[in-house]
Amino acid sequence: MFALNFIAILWQARGVDRRINVLDRSIAVRFDSFQQVMSAKFDSVDAKFQAQTQGLFRVEQVLDARLKHFEER
Q1: HSE on the CB side for 10, CA within 13 Å?
Q2: What angle do CA 50, 51, 57 make, to 5 degrees?
Q3: pTM score
Q4: pLDDT in tens, 19-72
């Protein structure tokens, strides 16, 4: 009787272990997907900041040229 109980406990433990492994893989896939989405969002925001920086740099150059022009007068 003891051997049957022991075998039943081992069988149940293996089933729980399999379920935990499936859940672990599922969570890993979800985190990877989330990481890819967030990485794309950060890249998008970074690109927008770079574009704004370039625009401000051009404005700065124009203002410097105008100021230089006024100083020469």
Answers
A1: 6
A2: 90
A3: 0.58
A4: 999 999 999 999 999 999 999 999 999 999 999 999 999 999 999 999 888 888
